[in-house]
Amino acid sequence: MSSEKDFSTLDNLACNTEVHLQLLTPTKTIRLRSRLIGVDPGRAVILAHGNDKAWRGSSAFITDKQSVIIRVVNSDEQDASILAFRSNIHQIITVVGRWIVIRYPKELQTVSLRQHSRIPINICASLTTIDSDETISTGYLRDISIKGGAFVSEARGHFNVDSQYRLKMDFNGEEESISITIKNQQELDPSSRLAQYGFTLDADEEKSERLVQQIILQHLNQ
């Protein structure tokens, strides 16, 4: 159930906040980036209509009643979170600007970026040595928080607890990495030969939070 606080956060988002727009079509999923023009509380969310190659290639699907999923990163220092909701396009406005009017949502999904509890995800990742950048293992991130997370891959005896490694991920063709410290190793189902490696993030809070935002958005966009 969405709370009044969640809707209040949506209503008070700053103009020009980046918005991730997903068009739900029968044949493919289309993802676009936009920015927030404004929110008319209880009535509509107004987004800018982009003009890059991705937008031009999606013009046939940007129509009234088109189903969409909206995801917004609210980076307010007091309550950093990701807001997500499903709705549909109400109107395309081209008179005073190129705007897309989205029907105001009945329900919101929120994910706190500052909570210490782990957020379940499934993102491909790899671990490399901290100095030589040699890939040691490939697997996936199982959960993440602003403090750390869990990496799952084949069980390996040469991971050293309390040693530093570099965690690498690919976000739509852009590689991101961050130094981590392995804190524990736990064998999962023996038949799968997989192990879970708990780790802490070694970067400062600003970089860690930015990366966690990217990871969660990547997971939600899959």
What do these coordinates show?
The protein is mainly beta and 222 residues long. The chain is built from three helices and 13 strands; from the N terminus they run αβββαββββββββββα. It has helices at residues 4-11, 53-57, 205-221, and strands at 18-24, 29-40, 44-48, 67-74, 81-93, 99-103, 109-112, 119-128, 135-144, 148-154, 164-171, 174-187, 194-201. The strands form two sheets. The chain has a six-stranded antiparallel β-barrel with strand order 1-2-3-6-5-4. A six-stranded antiparallel β-barrel has the order 8-9-10-13-12-11. Strand 2 and strand 3 form a beta hairpin. The relative contact order is 0.13. The mean pLDDT is 86. Residues 113-216 form the PilZ domain. Residues 16-105 form the Type III secretion system flagellar brake protein YcgR PilZN domain.
